[in-house]
Amino acid sequence: MNTIYIDTHCHLNFKRFNKTRDQAVMEAQRQGVGACIVPGTDIISSQKAVEIAAQYPQVYAAVGVHPHHVYVSQQSTVNSSQSEDRSQKTDMEELEKLVIHPKVVAVGEVGLDRHEYEETKYENYQISEEFMQAQKSYFRSQINLAKKYEKALILHNRETKRELLAVLGEEWAESMRFRTVFHCSEPDEELLAYAQVHNIYIGIDGDVTYGGDKAQFALKVPLELLVLETDSPFLLPEPLRAQKLYPNTPSNIPLIAQCIADIKGVAVEEVARATTENARKLFHL
To answer: Residue 96: how many CB atoms within 10 A of its CB?
Structure first.
């Protein structure tokens, strides 16, 4: 297969793939996915991402603490009896040990999140201003970790656009141009405008196949700023979602590429070429 794709965001480190990881990696390769980036969401999953990247030549890792999981550290601060006592200082020390691994190409996924999750392992999870301040502190530290070690930055943003852009603006460095991506970008024209000014890539996932705002947004994103993601095992693209063929895997990247090609009225080979070139530039592959 001559068409080569890169899945810039797939959680092969999640337990959903514990029994099928080999199969998922091999099937992705058969479908023309030449590389996969596996991001961390906390210290344990970051360690797992590095282990997986070391095992497969075509898999690379990102390490970071997702804003949702900052909750552990924040609760440890306000409640000294917390069973899982973690501090930001400890987490940053652990990430710094991981980020120097040769298969680690990014810090991520990191950012801000105000979504009130109904399904979470954390008891009494709620978005307080203290929690948001803790998220911002982690976010700043991880931006600086990416800058220090010259790694790409994978950004998570959910219902926090203005706050996220404010922090980015304060921490921005020219070295972050073409080394930053809005993962699973919200379909927001202000985010796109910011991305265009700052040369930030836009991650498009399987939900683009559902139509609606994501499809309209994908039409507006120039190919030179677009990268493909599955966010496996989530966001299963159509027609597989209708068939309930879960979980999503990196092998489904061609479905996303074809949908984008149809939306833009270009050949799928053009989408593959541009997004693969972008991903290589983003992660220095």
So the answer is: 13
The CA distance from 101 to 53, in Å, is: 10
pTM over 0.70: yes
The pair of three-digit structure tokens given for residue 93, joined into one six-digit string: 């020390």
| Closest of 25, 29, 31 to residue 52, by C-alpha | 25
> In Å, what is the CA distance from 282 to each residue of 35, 63, 150, 249, 269?
13, 15, 11, 22, 20
DSSP string, 87-120: -HHHHHHHHHHHHTSTTEEEEEEEEEE----SS-
Strands 104-113 and 59-63: parallel
What are residue 155's phi and psi, to 5 degrees? -100, 130
Read off the pLDDT of residues 176-230 as tens digits, 9 standing for 90 and up: 999 999 999 999 999 999 999 999 999 999 999 999 999 999 999 999 999 999 9
Q: How many residues does the chain have?
A: 285
Give DSSP secondary structure letters for 178-224. TSEEETT--S-HHHHHHHHHHT-EEEE-GGGGG-HHHHHHHHHS-GG
What are the residues facing 206 on neighbouring strands?
A: none
CB–CB of 70/135 below 8 Å? yes
Please say whether the dihedral angle defined by the alpha carbons of residues 152, 218, 9 and 130, taken in this order, is positive or negative: positive
Q: Which amino acid would we find at residue 159?
A: E
pLDDT-based confidence at residue 257 (cuts at 50, 70, 90): very high
> Helix H segments across the chain?
21-30, 43-55, 70-78, 88-99, 129-148, 161-171, 189-198, 212-220, 253-264, 268-283
CA distances from 93 to 11, 42, 54, 137 (A): 23, 13, 21, 15
The structural domains of the chain, ordered by start, are 5-283 (3.20.20.140)
CA dihedral of 230, 234, 237, 238, whole degrees rounded to 10 = 170
